[in-house]
Structure formats: structure tokens, C-alpha cells
């Protein structure tokens, strides 16, 4: 068995090369999306990106509105990194990586105002629909941020509101044809810096060799809604400019994958 150490990866990166022979800005293939994988979710999707596999499910519930937004519903994103997906994860409360993953996906959706929350209102000041997006890792082979963002958006696209009777009781066994009011579709693209070189869609081994990363959430028009910096090495203004350009380009690529598998 060949042991890939960080020095090997850094040495290759310096020369613009990778162990799997991909280009520095090339995603693994194939990238596929399977829909409606959960019978109990209002919308669900499984994304396979290389060997990375992530599931996202959407649940809808009617809750009391918040005092400061009485005419709006809401959205919450949770992430669980299962031990079966990586030996680095343990059972129990969400760890730092799971919390960060959920926040990155949540921030991209929330800050871009991707969903018209006012249309989720049932009765102002009393009740509204609230969306919960659950993200679960099945196999972490690297680049969970991008895979999770793609899965979350695919699940939101496929979600349909459940039937509600005259008494306001939700019948989760039956769905309507009404979709979630999505007005923007932000997708995260994570760009890593490895030995001074910028790369996308890193494997786990490559992630361990990375000095820093920046996850950029942007919509179909290239409008950036969220940024999340990781790693210990700073990024220069010039590098950030290059990363933003890369993120906008690759977001368009991932959106093409989304459109191929999921109707808007």
C-alpha cells in the first residue's frame, strides 16, 4: 500500500500536479445526485462527489413565529458527521467540524435571502412554516462543504409542503404540489491553498496538507453571500481575488450538475 504523506502532496502541488492526475481546479468525477431517498422527509437528496457521499433531508413544520419577525417563517441547518463516514468522527454531540459545516451551509442560504420567508407565514404573529435541513455524512473522502451545499440545495428544490387539514393538522404521509419559495440558489465552493497553489475539491489527504481554505457562497448571478476562512495561514488580497474568481466559475459548474439532476 502506498502511503501518501503531506510532503508528497505539497511537492506535487508546487509543480501544479495532484496524486490522482486531476487539474488543480478540477472536481472529481462523477458527481451524481439521487433524489427522494427518504420516505419521511419532505425533500431529500444524496450527493456523490468522487468517493465523498452526503445526504440532506428537509422537514417542514408549523411553529410559532418569532417576536422580531412576526410575518416570517424560518430555516435551520444541522449537520451530523457519522463515525461510519470517517474514523475521525465519534458518536455524540456535534463536534467543531459538524458545527462549522452546518453554519457554512446555513449562512449561505440565510445571508443570500435564498428563501422568501414571508411566504412561509401562515398567520402573522402566530404561526408559520419552518424549514429544517439535516445534513449527514455517509463517506467523508474530502470536500464536505461543497458536497453538503449541493445536497442541501437539491433537497430544498425537491421539497413539497405536506397536506394540512381544516383543523391545521399536518398529514406528513401526503404531499401537495407546492414547492418551497426559493428565490436564489447559493452554492458553496471551497478553494484551498496548498504550498502556495490554489486547488478545489480536495481529498482527505490533500486537506491535511492544506495551509488554508476559503469557502465562498454565491448565486447564479455571481453574487457572493457568505465567506468562511479556515486554516492557520493568512490569504493575501490578491489570493482572495483569485479565489473569488475561481469560486464564481466553479459555482456555475456545480449549478450545471444540479440542473442536470434536479428540475428547478
Feature tags:
single chain; 264 residues; alpha+beta; Ribosomal Protein S5, domain 2; 6-stranded mixed beta sheet; 4-stranded antiparallel beta sheet; 5 helices
User: Biggest β-sheet: count, sense, barrel?
Assistant: 6 strands, mixed
User: What is the mean pLDDT?
Assistant: 96
Indicate the radius of gyration in whole angstroms: 19 Å
CATH superfamily: GHMP Kinase, N-terminal domain
Gap from first CA to last CA: 44 Å
Please tally the helical runs, counting DSSP H or I stretches of 4 or more residues: 5
Spell the H/E element sequence.
Answer: HEEEEHEEHEEEEHEEH
The assigned CATH architecture is 2-Layer Sandwich
Instruction: Give the strand tally.
Output: 12
Count of folded domains: 1
Question: What fraction strand?
Answer: 25-35%
- CATH topology: the name is Ribosomal Protein S5, domain 2
Q: Overall 3D geometry?
A: elongated
Low-confidence stretches: none
Describe this structure in words.
The protein is of the alpha+beta class and about 260 residues long. The protein has one domain: Ribosomal Protein S5, domain 2, CATH 3.30.230. The protein is built from five helices and twelve strands. The chain has helices at about 5-15, 95-110, 145-160, 205-210, 235-260, and strands at about 30-35, 45-50, 50-65, 75-80, 120-125, 125-140, 160-165, 170-180, 185-195, 195-200, 210-220, 225-230. The strands form three sheets. Strands 1, 2, 3, 4, 5 and 6 form a six-stranded mixed beta sheet that branches. Strands 10-9-11-12 form a four-stranded antiparallel beta sheet, with helices on both faces. Strand 11 and strand 12 (about 225-230) form a beta hairpin. The longest helix has 25 residues, at about 235-260. The N and C termini lie far apart (about 45 Å). The model has no long low-confidence stretch (mean pLDDT about 95).
Amino acid at each position: 500500500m502506498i502511503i501518501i504523506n503531506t510532503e508528497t502532496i505539497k511537492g506535487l502541488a508546487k509543480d501544479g500536479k495532484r496524486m490522482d492526475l486531476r487539474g488543480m481546479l478540477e472536481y472529481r468525477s462523477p458527481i451524481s445526485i439521487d433524489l427522494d431517498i427518504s420516505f419521511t422527509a419532505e425533500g431529500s437528496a444524496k450527493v456523490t462527489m468522487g468517493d465523498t457521499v452526503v445526504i440532506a433531508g428537509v422537514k417542514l413544520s408549523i411553529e410559532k413565529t418569532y417576536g422580531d419577525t412576526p410575518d416570517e417563517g424560518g430555516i435551520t441547518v444541522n449537520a451530523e458527521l457519522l463515525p461510519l463516514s470517517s474514523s475521525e468522527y465519534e458518536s455524540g454531540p456535534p463536534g467543531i467540524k459538524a458545527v462549522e459545516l452546518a453554519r457554512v451551509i446555513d449562512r449561505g442560504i440565510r445571508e443570500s435571502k435564498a428563501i422568501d420567508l414571508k411566504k412561509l407565514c401562515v398567520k402573522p404573529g402566530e404561526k408559520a412554516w419552518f424549514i429544517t435541513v439535516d445534513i449527514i455524512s455517509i463517506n467523508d473522502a474530502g470536500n464536505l462543504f461543497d458536497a453538503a451545499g449541493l445536497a442541501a440545495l437539491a433537497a430544498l428544490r425537491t421539497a413539497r409542503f405536506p397536506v394540512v387539514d381544516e383543523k391545521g393538522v399536518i398529514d406528513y404521509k401526503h404531499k401537495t404540489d407546492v414547492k418551497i419559495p426559493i428565490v436564489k440558489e447559493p452554492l458553496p465552493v471551497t478553494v484551498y491553498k496548498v504550498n502556495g497553489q490554489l486547488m478545489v475539491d480536495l481529498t482527505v489527504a490533500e486537506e491535511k496538507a492544506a495551509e488554508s481554505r476559503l469557502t465562498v457562497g454565491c448565486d447564479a448571478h455571481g453574487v457572493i453571500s457568505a465567506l468562511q476562512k479556515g486554516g492557520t495561514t493568512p490569504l493575501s488580497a490578491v489570493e482572495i481575488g483569485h479565489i473569488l474568481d475561481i469560486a464564481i466559475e466553479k459555482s456555475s459548474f456545480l449549478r450545471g450538475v444540479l440542473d442536470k439532476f434536479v428540475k428547478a
